[in-house]
Amino acid sequence: MNDLGYFTAKEFQLKSLTRIVGGHSIIGIAPEGAGKTTTYVLGVLMRLKYTQDEAPKVLILAPNEDKITEIIDRFHTISKNKNLHIMGLKTSGGMEEEIEDLVRGVDIVVATPTRARAVYLKLGLNLNRIQTFIIDDAEEIVKQGMQTTVRELAQSCGKVQYLAFSTVEHEKLHVMIDGFMPFAPVIEVEELGEETMQTQELALYEVPNFTTKINLLNLLMRDADVFDKVVLFVNSRLTAHNLIQRLHVQKGEAALLHPFFHDDLGFDNIQEFKQTPECRILVVANEGGGPIDLSGIPFIFHFEIPEKTDVFAQHVLKTSDDEAMAITFATDIELPELKKIEQLLGKKIPSIPLPDDLIIYRPSDNAKQKNEVDDSRGGAFHAKKESNSKTHNYGSGVKAKMTKRNKKR
């Protein structure tokens, strides 16, 4: 390891390597660059007993071909053992040649879940001798919808050492792995940037899905006294157009910057929006957009996580004496990108509890919701009892902060 330039272990490696070498199952949560792949490569190499068995002893699942290549290269770089037999399965195409190679004997197999399952069903991948079952970049595997395939493969391996690695821990990750590693300890490290950027006040709402994001936005925007000037960022112009159709505000209160369709209400520049008091919400698409002057805007919303981390940073950097609150909505699937943003900013974005009266959209409840909708507000809202109606929709502490920020203007 010293020859390769590894002179000191990283925090994640210090916390997890002894457990991996000891044969324990773990869930490793750490950002990119924390050394997750190197950690389990070292663990596998230290535990692996080289024999002439035809069946593999280690199965590593990765989300795509690039990651498969990276993992194999890491094994070859760290291991100088010429007898190590490691094989990466293609993501598509014919399987006959791969099955022949597997039958000749291999120690470690690296594949996507779907390809591993396809070869297994062709009786080409023997899982009876698997000792270690590894899921790398688990958040990407979840994002691609391969959870069921992972569970099927894991259950076919029997009682083995399970290692799952992800940049974030969330409900969908546990839905995938809890069935075969329910009591595995979580080892988590946070590695933020060395420099902390000076930003506006940041806040995060973690929501389960896109429809709940819309419900939350409409809930907050009911308070026109607080949210009297808002810039709302989305990723594409089409999303901006669709979102503004689903905002429950009076005509003229919401507009687009550079409208996608000619009949959409909009402005050619943000200064027009600032000078139009009756319009309080401006929806802006990051797609094809350049720098935007947010001075004098008290509330900045990221309805979607920008595809480029530096775009988020540009929106929230504090460049003047103006004070604003930057509020982000993120689903489980977006949390990995949010982690990258936090690394860039050099600090965590504080999470805010969801409002008590927020309607959480659940697809399985569609039939029930149809019988309970309040037609005057659209299908996203349930009718409320008068005794439960509120004029505030967030915690008292958050409400006070928002009101105070608005009065400072």
Can you give me a brief rundown of this structure?
The protein is an alpha/beta fold and 409 residues long. It contains 15 helices and 16 strands.
- Number of extended strands: 16
Q: How many strands, what sense, and barrel or not for the largest sheet?
A: 7 strands, parallel
Strand content: 15-25%
Rg result? 25 Å
Count up the helices: 15
Q: What is the annotated CATH architecture of the largest domain?
A: 3-Layer(aba) Sandwich
Measured as a percent range, the helix fraction is 25-40%
Describe the protein.
It is elongated, with a radius of gyration of 25 Å. It is built from 15 helices and 16 strands. A hairpin with a 3-residue loop joins strand 15 (373-374) and strand 16 (378-382). The model is unreliable at 367-393 (pLDDT under 50). The strands form three sheets. A seven-stranded parallel β-sheet has the order 3-4-2-5-6-1-7, with helices on both faces. A seven-stranded parallel β-sheet has the order 8-14-13-9-12-10-11. A two-stranded antiparallel sheet has the order 15-16. With 409 residues, it is of the alpha/beta class.
